[in-house]
Automatic annotation (TrEMBL):
Molecular function GO terms recorded: DNA binding
Source domain of life: Bacteria
Gene3D superfamilies, alphabetized: lambda repressor-like DNA-binding domains (1.10.260.40)
Full protein name: XRE family transcriptional regulator
Length: 69
């Protein structure tokens, strides 16, 4: 079975969560998505376009990260 890989944006999101000492569950609650759907976004299986602005806002990502979203 092929192991799923985080996208470059997924890696940035996970790193930012670690920097903030927060969990994916916390991010899900703030953004209003399920943990499963967030995982799909992090692994590139869903674009998450509808939620990307909110994810960027909640995590306080800068312009550089925003453009790679």
């Amino acid at each position: 079975m092929k192991q799923r890989q985080l996208t470059p944006l997924g890696k940035k999101i996970v790193k930012r969560l670690v920097d903030l000492n927060q969990t994916q569950v916390w991010l899900c609650e703030k953004v209003g998505v399920s943990k499963v759907y967030l995982n799909f976004i992090l692994h590139g299986e869903r674009s998450g376009k509808k939620y990307m602005d909110k994810i960027i806002e909640v995590l306080g990502l800068d312009e550089e990260e925003q453009q790679s979203a």
